[in-house]
User: Which sequence fits this backbone?
């Protein structure tokens, strides 16, 4: 592994940082999340058409840039640094890789170039609060999380004209605004139980989308209700199609990208806290000069740097084909963000608790991400189970 960044990777970071400093400060973030889409469409157009972020990690044959998960993680780190709300996570990290892995050639050719240009956004809809299970991050995704043939979840029924879906999916990232929904649904009853993915275009009859009030406003969520909706199967109807395997692979790369994003947020909130303690005075001196404060900040710095190293390694390893590394990096990054943002609120004193200050935005990102993609102890527990660390009283080597 080469631990240094290439010139192209450094350029991605530099260009994004300069753009976000100009166009995505705390006030711009607050304004963007209150729009109908939950993000600034002009900024998204710039990110997509000028910087090529949606297609950064898929092939040039489909309009992409042809880079790897590492470049996507570096870009997401910068977006996390500014808390820029955008459809990048739902579209490029969760949706597009599934289209690439499972879609037919016709589906890829028709949809991926539009995703790469930013014209089409996507969202992955899974039943209930099962996103991390579906992605294989906190549990086995070959179970009955999509419905299992019982009431609830999302069910798919074969008809003469194709497929019909009915059910409900909650906590769908950017589900209220996405032009394309990838819906995980159970089919086959008990005898031939399977989970398949289906495509729903914007405006499909029988689909109700409700934007939810979320703890973290920068991470828009929606409830998707399906009432006998006509849907298109993603890929071919082939018994050998490994939907669970594709979801787990996407989950591993998504975890690496999310870890980098969390590291970016932790780095920024730590930076802002250091700036503040140099200015705030008590007893005639800056509180940053007190040894107790220095120790707390030093501990935070070490934790953020350790999480950054784990996130970078996970991004590189995932791109190199190594499996089951993203979840541990994500756990470390989420923990670092939670602790750093909590300390930031404390060290900012009374102002840190107010809506006017940006510290609460990072605190909510930390809490919201752990609710969506964690909790941390379950990420670590599943990674340990998968590695059989504690199976049979023996430690794996």
Assistant:
């Amino acid at each position: 592994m080469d631990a240094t960044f290439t010139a192209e990777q450094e350029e991605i970071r530099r260009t994004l940082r300069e753009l976000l400093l100009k166009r995505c400060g705390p006030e711009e973030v607050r304004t963007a999340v209150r729009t109908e889409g939950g993000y600034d469409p002009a900024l998204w157009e710039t990110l997509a058409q000028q910087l090529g972020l949606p297609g950064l990690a898929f092939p040039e044959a489909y309009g992409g840039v042809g880079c790897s998960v590492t470049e996507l993680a570096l870009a997401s780190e910068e977006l996390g640094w500014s808390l820029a709300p955008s459809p990048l996570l739902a579209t490029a990290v969760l949706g597009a890789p599934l289209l690439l892995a499972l879609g037919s050639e016709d589906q890829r050719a028709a949809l991926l170039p539009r995703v790469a240009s930013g014209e089409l956004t996507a969202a992955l809809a899974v039943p209930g609060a099962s996103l991390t299970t579906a992605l294989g991050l906190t549990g086995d995704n070959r179970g009955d999380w999509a419905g299992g043939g019982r009431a609830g979840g999302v069910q798919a029924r074969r008809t003469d004209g194709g497929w019909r879906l009915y059910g409900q999916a909650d906590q769908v990232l950017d589900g209220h605004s996405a032009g394309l929904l990838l819906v995980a649904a159970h089919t086959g009853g008990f005898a031939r139980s399977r989970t398949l993915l289906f495509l729903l275009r914007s405006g499909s009859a029988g689909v109700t989308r409700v934007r939810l009030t979320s703890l973290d406003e920068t991470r828009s969520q929606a409830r998707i209700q399906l009432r006998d909706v006509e849907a298109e199967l993603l890929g071919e109807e082939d018994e050998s199609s490994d939907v669970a395997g594709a979801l787990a692979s996407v989950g591993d790369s998504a975890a690496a990208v999310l870890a980098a994003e969390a590291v970016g947020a932790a780095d920024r909130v730590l930076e802002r806290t250091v700036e503040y303690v140099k200015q705030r005075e008590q007893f005639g001196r800056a509180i940053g000069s007190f040894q107790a404060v220095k120790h707390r900040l030093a501990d935070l710095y070490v934790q953020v740097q350790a999480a950054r190293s784990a996130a970078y390694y996970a991004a590189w390893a995932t791109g190199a084909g190594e499996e089951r590394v993203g979840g541990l990096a994500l756990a470390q990054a989420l923990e670092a963000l939670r602790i750093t943002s909590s300390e930031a609120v404390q060290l900012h004193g009374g102002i840190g608790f107010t809506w006017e200050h940006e510290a609460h935005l990072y605190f909510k990102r930390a809490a919201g991400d752990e609710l969506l993609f964690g909790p941390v102890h379950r990420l670590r527990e599943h990674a340990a189970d998968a590695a059989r660390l504690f199976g049979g009283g023996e430690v794996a080597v």
